[in-house]
């Protein structure tokens, strides 16, 4: 069972993500980037991070910057979820290491397929080291 950290401030979406992801994975949900960063720096290393862009206290871009500058978490794949279809933000996220940018609202089955693709790709990379 893979560990997934979800960072999302929208409660109904948190409920949906918990419901669909927890069928196959161990899911931790944080409501903002600062709480998530604190959880990470307390020694928790997930297999995948799924993060919103617009959040209170530490937004998704800032969190990506922290992760990309960290030796410990740099290898953890990050999927960005956002209702903002701004191409500049998408490019910025990719430059900071996000593996994909998924626009809200999303189709749950397609979202799960992307989560599984990212997790299996990470397993292949780790397995080849």
Tell me what you see in this structure.
With 129 residues, the protein is of the alpha/beta class. 45% of the residues lie in helices and 19% in strands. It has a single domain (3-127), classed as Rossmann fold. It has helices at 11-21, 33-41, 60-68, 87-95, 108-127; strands at 3-7, 26-30, 48-52, 78-82, 100-103. β3, α3 (60-68) and β4 form a beta-alpha-beta unit. The chain starts with a strand and ends with a helix.
Name of the top-level CATH class = Alpha Beta
Q: List the helices and strands in order.
A: EHEHEHEHEH
Distance between the termini: 21 Å
Based on the structure given, which CATH architecture is correct? 3-Layer(aba) Sandwich
Number of domains: 1
Radius of gyration: 13 Å
Features of this protein?
alpha/beta, Rossmann fold
SSE arrangement:
Blueprint: E1 3-7, H1 11-21, E2 26-30, H2 33-41, E3 48-52, H3 60-68, E4 78-82, H4 87-95, E5 100-103, H5 108-127
Parallel strand pairs: 1-2, 1-3, 3-4, 4-5
In short:
This protein is α/β, with parallel strands linked by helices.
């Amino acid at each position: 069972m893979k560990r997934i950290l979800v960072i999302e401030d929208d409660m109904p979406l948190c409920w949906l993500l918990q419901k669909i992801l927890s069928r196959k994975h161990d899911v931790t949900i944080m409501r903002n980037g600062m709480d998530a960063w604190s959880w990470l720096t307390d020694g928790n290393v997930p297999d995948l991070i799924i993060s919103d862009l617009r959040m209170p206290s530490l937004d998704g871009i800032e969190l990506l910057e922290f992760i990309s500058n960290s030796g410990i978490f740099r290898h953890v794949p990050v999927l960005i979820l956002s209702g903002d279809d701004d191409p500049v933000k998408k490019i910025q996220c990719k430059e900071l290491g996000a593996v994909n940018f998924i626009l809200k609202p999303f189709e749950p089955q397609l979202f799960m397929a992307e989560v599984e693709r990212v997790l299996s790709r990470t397993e292949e990379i780790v397995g080849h080291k």
